[in-house]
Design goal:
The complex is a heterotrimer of chains A (about 550), B (about 325) and C (about 300).
Chain A (H helix, E strand, L loop, with lengths): L1 H21 L14 E7 L6 E2 L4 H10 L1 E7 L4 H11 L5 E3 L4 H6 L7 H7 L1 H7 L20 E3 L11 E6 H6 L8 H14 L2 E2 L2 E2 L1 E4 L8 H4 L1 H5 L8 E3 L6 E3 L4 H15 L12 H9 L3 E7 L4 H10 L6 E4 L23 E3 L6 H11 L2 H9 L7 E2 L5 E2 L2 H7 L2 H7 L1 H4 L6 E3 L13 H7 L2 H9 L30 H22 L5 H13 L3 H16 L7
Parallel strand pairs in A: 1-3, 1-4, 5-17, 9-12
Antiparallel strand pairs in A: 2-3, 4-14, 6-12, 6-13, 7-8, 10-11, 15-16
Helix pairs in contact in A: 2-14, 11-21, 12-13, 21-22, 21-23
Chain B lengths: L6 H11 L8 H10 L1 H19 L10 E2 L10 E2 L3 H8 L3 H32 L3 H11 L7 H11 L6 H8 L16 H26 L3 H9 L4 H26 L7 H6 L5 H4 L2 H8 L6 H28 L7
Helix pairs in contact in B: 4-15, 5-9, 6-9, 11-15
Chain C lengths: L1 H7 L5 H32 L3 H4 L14 H7 L4 H31 L6 H11 L6 H10 L17 H13 L2 H9 L4 H12 L1 H17 L2 H6 L9 H17 L1 H5 L12 H28 L5 H4 L1
Helix pairs in contact in C: 1-2, 2-15, 4-15, 5-8, 5-11, 5-13, 8-11, 11-15, 13-15
Classes of the chains: A alpha/beta (about 550), B mainly alpha (about 325), C mainly alpha (about 300).
Chain lengths: ~550, ~325, ~300
């Protein structure tokens, strides 16, 4: 009876192991030795879990305040995790709710911070200054602190990480670095190159592609909005004069853009798989060097850029262009300063001595500590020139770049999801090194300089217009209640766009009008009016300084 | 004879034998309890476990009729009547969603059973034990790959340029130009079915291999002496031998008629095939979970349960009528 | 052809030869199709992440590195989490299979008067899902949250497994049990001395199912114990690594600084997922051959019948 013996021994081992497993389970997370205390800091986004005092910066902060945080990031679905938190009524000490703030406030999970800030958070109050109103709830309370209050001067990025029409650098070089403005010029150049070079390095040339997989259909459907000269304001374009919000899904711009894609397709210049590919396939295509152009957001294909850089063929890389629909439209690809008032970090009712957390935050928001978080230590991670400008040497760039360094030093954990500022320090240096032109130009390679010089610019973002003032920006940070008509419209309109755009683009040019009509009918059968009205009202209220309204 | 009595017959016979005892009532119950106290001792603790862990939480179904907010208790919620069900069934795409759900579920069910049994039989026919073991181990490896990985491989295999499927078909002259497999909506069900077979056929065959070990080897020997061919042995010994297990599994799976899978569809779906890809689970994710609407998800769950029960009891009844093994 | 002939070996008839040749050929083809994804995953896990982005990898790495594994194992928690994973797999499988087998035995007995009631009570739960929040609240009331037992007790018996074991025991010749009863054996004795030993193939199968389920589980860690690092499991830790990779791939800090010579090691979700898959599947794949011997070769019941 071999089986039985084996089974019994497994059982025995199991029981023994269980007994050992039970020991040492219950441990209190709060209140450690003397003055030191550890709080549980839950972040509803992804990242690497750490104890802040295990990082260089966190260690310094702990010495200053006696506080340590056990930082936990979300692993599964946010709504499920927050759902059980709310149902069970047990919360981590601090929660970065990542879009579920209202639910936590409604449940009474966040404590009001007003008095605590008054007493222990003078630096926070000062830094957030004029923004405080934006995140004060209608009941007069502040429940959470958003990130990235813009202070002093707005500093644009040195490189484009947002939406743009991208073009293979080799195409520009081939035709003597022409200046491209309109979408027509852009497509013409691509077509010309594709005709001359039907193959690149033995691979079939892919003149124009794109991607809209899974949650990312906006990477296709936002293009008309940008061509019309609007920044990414969510699902609407906000008129600069009337401040009226209108959807652009079925706008004239969308129609014209889709017609161009339709023609490209009919002539064989469009990659049909653009509506089918997943991210890996798309990135592989971009890194193959055979793609000439596409619309996308810079952050979304970073992996392909890394791969192209490593391959060492600068002409295969891509450059961002501020393409617009017609001559005379001012491009607005670069995001205006955005203060997302409805996301933030809050202290829950579970935290003992919440003033210690506020004190910690108040300490870290000081300019010198923000400098420590963003730039590191002077002489080690950055230098200061005679004019007081910060820069990094090549060695410092190489030292700071690896993910591992940023994690161990504490740059990655503190750089977001904690109270912080944006813009420039009082001495005029950019708060984020990547926005400091001195750092960016140091990072440019020889091949980059070739293009920069050809276009007579210092940084790649100089090709783009600076953002106009849009005091409501971003409209997408409006408080849309989950399951409301506006929320459902967002979901359903996304479905309609996904379903119809490919049909319109890939149809026979003769059927274009019919397909378009078909789409408009489906789109207009949704509750467009309520959606537009909601955003028009949001914009209006915000212009009047009212960011919190029922 | 070596083959055991069919459990159905065994039970019938037992009932017949004990007909005179069949007086029901409390007295009967207590007498039985006393008589079969050992069996009760072995099962009742787990019955209590079942009640606590599986039945008590069902009280939460009440939220299907509420506008549930997790922060409040079950009794403090706002009542929504049948609104959640109305939202579920009222969607204009509901028919399409049900069609997709049922189609993919049935395709997966049929393909899954046929391929798993076929593989198990073929493996069982391998005489070289070492080879058999190696093949079997390898055949179930894809089971350990997550759908993300499998979907990635499927999509690469189906690519227009250099995709292995198009390359082979072009070489064989079956098609003259590459097909955008994932871009043609009505290929979607087939792609899901094939991917599912690839991922799980080896794993699913394990249980039939185990079932085959219960077949008495003497039968094969006897058949061989009688001059039965391989095919005959498979048809008359192996297949009947695994039939009870097959029937039981089939009944259980028929109950899962609305579970057509989720990850595979979600990952392989795109804007061109979504009309054939969207199933009930994806719909619930879209309007339920991701809008923090637990009530809608619960309502959908209840709907699934009702459909499951109908199919489950139906299938069980049919099995009974046909004189096959029953689930309960 | 030579390989096939070797595996097929000597056969008596022409029919047999044809059958076996086709079968073996088919199996070899199957091996290729089934092995490819695993080898591809292995290749990706051993390839530099930025190079993998280019696509076109098959079964051999193009630009070899072990960095993906280094990154996965960088987590300090991983050893402890591995221990918890092994523990929950062993305990969960041991207790779960034992409990299932015991209940299965009782509902396989034709004379048991609660047979149908218990079977139905279990089977119905397969198709009823209370949902996340009620389940969470129940486990909280029972004090299972923050404890190792939440991995074991709520999912102790899998109904599918229960039914599978039952139908195997039902398939055993009733005469064996009858003769045991005549010798005065009670139900416990019949269960331990007859049902369990004879059901070894199915016990092995079900153990495999339960073990794999336990080993791969991460959702219960996420819902119940995610703030208690001591009770984290390997799968959960790996999920964390994967999630943190998702951000760093798009993180501005990493992607906009440019590399000027000097290799910078970058990870992408794709390569981390591959390394992760290899790490978690190897132990389970290695366990298989030990269980396999119980169900590759048939048992002869004739001997036991007496």
């Amino acid at each position: 009876m071999n089986g039985k013996k084996g089974f019994l021994s497994i059982l025995l081992v199991a029981v023994l192991l269980m007994i050992t497993a039970c020991v040492g389970e219950e441990e209190d997370t709060a209140a450690d030795s003397d003055d030191g205390v550890t709080y549980h800091y839950f972040i509803g986004g992804s990242g690497r879990d750490v104890n802040t005092n295990e990082t260089v910066i966190g260690k310094i902060f702990e010495e200053e305040t006696g506080v340590n945080f056990q930082v936990e990031h979300l692993v599964g679905d946010l709504n499920e995790r927050i759902g059980v938190m709310l149902a069970g009524g047990t919360y981590p000490d601090v929660v970065v709710a990542a879009g579920t703030e209202d639910q936590l406030v409604d449940a009474g999970a966040f404590i009001p911070l007003n008095d605590l800030l008054e007493e222990h958070g003078q630096n926070i109050l000062e830094m957030y200054g004029e923004y405080l109103d934006r995140f004060t709830y209608p009941d007069g309370n502040i429940y959470y602190i958003p990130f990235g209050a813009e202070i002093n001067e707005y500093q644009p990025m040195a490189n484009i990480d947002q939406g743009a029409f991208w073009i293979r650098k080799g195409v520009l070089k081939e035709y003597g670095f022409p200046e491209l403005t309109t979408i027509e010029e852009y497509f013409d150049l691509i077509k010309r190159y594709a005709d001359e070079y039907p193959e690149i390095d033995g691979m079939r040339t892919i003149p124009f592609t794109g991607i809209g997989h899974d949650q990312g259909f906006f990477r296709i459907s936002n293009a008309p909005n940008h061509l019309a000269g609007f920044p990414n304001d969510g699902g609407v374009m906000v008129d600069m004069e009337t401040h009226e919000a209108t959807v652009y899904g079925d706008s004239e711009y969308a129609k014209r853009y889709l017609r161009m894609l339709n023609e490209l397709n009919a002539e064989g210049y469009l990659d049909q798989e653009m509506f089918v590919m997943n991210d890996d396939d798309y990135l592989a295509k971009l890194s193959s060097g055979s793609v000439l152009g596409f619309f996308d957001y810079g952050w979304a294909f970073a992996d392909a850029r890394n791969a192209l850089e490593e391959a060492g063929e600068p002409d295969n890389e891509f450059m961002a262009l501020p393409i617009v629909m017609d001559e005379g439209i001012k491009d607005q690809y670069i995001d205006p300063p955005a203060f997302v008032q409805n996301r933030g970090t809050g202290i829950t009712v579970n935290a003992e001595n919440p003033e210690r957390i506020v004190q910690y935050w108040d300490n870290m928001i000081k300019e010198e500590n923000q400098r420590l978080i963003m730039w590191g230590i002077e002489g080690e991670h950055y230098e200061v020139d005679d004019n007081g400008r910060f820069y990094r040497t090549q060695e410092q760039i190489d030292l700071v770049r690896p993910q591992k360094f940023q994690e161990e030093f504490g740059m990655s954990v503190f750089s977001w999801d904690w109270p912080r500022i944006n813009g420039t320090f009082s001495d005029g240096n950019a708060i984020e090194p990547r926005r400091q032109p001195e750092v960016a130009s140091m990072e440019y390679r020889e091949s980059d300089h070739e293009y920069l010089e050809a276009y007579g610019i210092e940084t790649f973002s100089e090709l783009f217009s600076l953002p106009d003032e849009r005091p409501w920006y971003p409209a997408w940070s409006a408080n849309v209640a989950p399951g409301s008509a506006v929320d459902i419209f967002s979901e359903e309109s996304d479905q309609v766009l996904k379903r119809h755009y490919p049909r319109i683009v890939l149809s026979d040019p003769a059927d274009f009008e019919a397909e378009w009509e078909d789409f408009v009918e489906a789109y207009r059968s949704l509750n467009v009016e309520e959606y537009e009205a909601f955003f028009t009202r949001t914009v209006e209220e915000r212009i009047n300084g009212n960011w919190q309204f029922e | 004879m070596s083959q055991s009595m069919n459990p159905v017959e065994a039970e019938k016979e037992y009932k017949a034998r004990n007909k005179y005892k069949a007086k029901r009532g409390l007295r009967y119950f207590f007498r039985k309890c006393k008589e079969q106290k050992e069996l009760l001792f072995m099962s009742v603790p787990f019955l209590i476990w079942l009640f606590i862990f599986k039945y008590i939480p069902l009280g939460g179904w009440v939220m299907a009729f509420q506008d549930f907010k997790p922060a409040k208790g079950f009794f403090e919620q706002e009542w929504a009547g049948l609104d959640n069900f109305r939202f579920l069934f009222g969607n204009e795409r509901f028919f399409e969603i049900m069609r997709n759900t049922l189609a993919m579920s049935i395709i997966n069910l049929v393909l899954g059973f046929v391929t798993a049994i076929a593989l198990a039989i073929l493996l069982n026919e391998l005489r070289n034990i070492a080879f058999k073991r190696i093949v079997q181990t390898i055949s179930y490896m894809p089971h350990f790959l997550s759908w993300v990985v499998v979907a990635g491989l499927v999509s690469t295999a189906l690519a227009m340029e250099d995709g292995i499927v198009n390359t082979i078909l072009l070489h064989l002259g079956i098609i003259d130009s590459p097909i955008m497999w994932l871009g043609v909506a009505h290929y979607f069900w087939g792609i899901i079915g094939a991917s599912d077979v690839w991922k799980s056929v080896g794993w699913n065959s394990i249980i039939y291999l185990a079932a085959m070990t219960m077949i008495n080897q003497e039968q094969y020997e006897a058949a061989e002496i009688d001059g039965a061919k391989r095919i005959q042995r498979i048809l008359y010994i192996t297949l009947p031998g695994i039939k009870p297990v097959f029937v039981i599994l089939l009944i259980m799976n028929i109950g899962y008629i609305l579970e057509s899978g989720f990850e595979a569809q979600y990952l392989l779906m795109n804007s061109m095939n979504m009309d054939y890809a969207e199933n009930l689970d994806i719909y619930v994710l879209r309007y339920g979970i991701s809008m923090a609407d637990f009530s809608l998800a619960t309502a959908a769950g209840m709907f699934k349960t009702i459909i499951s029960f109908i199919f489950l009891f139906g299938a069980n009844k049919i099995a009974e009528k046909l004189g096959e093994a029953r689930l309960f | 052809m030579g390989v096939i002939r070797k595996i097929v070996g000597k056969r008596r008839g022409v029919d047999d030869l044809i059958f076996d040749t086709i079968n073996v050929t088919f199996m070899l083809l199957l091996v290729v199709v089934m092995l490819y994804p695993m080898l591809n995953t292995l290749a990706i896990s051993l390839n530099e992440a930025t190079d993998t982005v280019r696509g076109g990898l098959h079964i051999l790495p193009r630009s070899f590195t072990t960095y993906n594994y280094a990154h996965v194992f960088n987590e300090a928690q991983i050893i402890q989490a591995g221990i918890i994973s092994v523990l929950r797999t062993v305990v969960g499988t041991g207790l779960g299979v034992f409990a299932s087998a015991m209940v299965a035995y009782t509902i396989s007995r034709p004379h048991f008067f609660l047979k149908k009631f218990i079977t139905l009570a279990f089977v119905l739960t397969m198709y009823m899902n209370a949902g996340l929040i009620p389940t969470y609240l129940l486990n909280r009331e029972l004090g299972l949250i923050g404890s190792f037992w939440v991995y074991i007790i709520p999912g102790l018996i899998g109904v599918f497994n229960l039914i599978v074991i039952r139908s195997f025991i039902e398939g055993l010749p009733e005469t064996i049990f009858e003769s045991a009863r005549m010798d005065g054996a009670g139900e416990f004795v019949q269960f331990f001395r007859i049902a369990l030993p004879l059901a070894v193939p199915v016990i092995a199968t079900v153990s495999l199912f339960v073990a794999v389920g336990q080993w791969n589980q991460w959702f219960d860690v996420f819902i119940y114990n995610s703030s208690i690092p001591e009770l984290s499991t390997l799968q959960y830790e790996l999920m964390k690594v994967l999630q943190s990779t998702n951000t760093s791939g798009g993180s501005a800090a990493d992607s906009f600084s440019r590399s000027l010579g000097g290799q910078v090691e970058v990870v992408t979700p794709q390569s981390i997922r591959a390394a992760m898959t290899v790490v978690v599947s190897i132990p389970i794949i290695m366990v298989y051959p030990f269980l396999q011997k119980y169900f590759v070769k048939g048992l002869t019941l004739g001997g036991v019948k007496g």
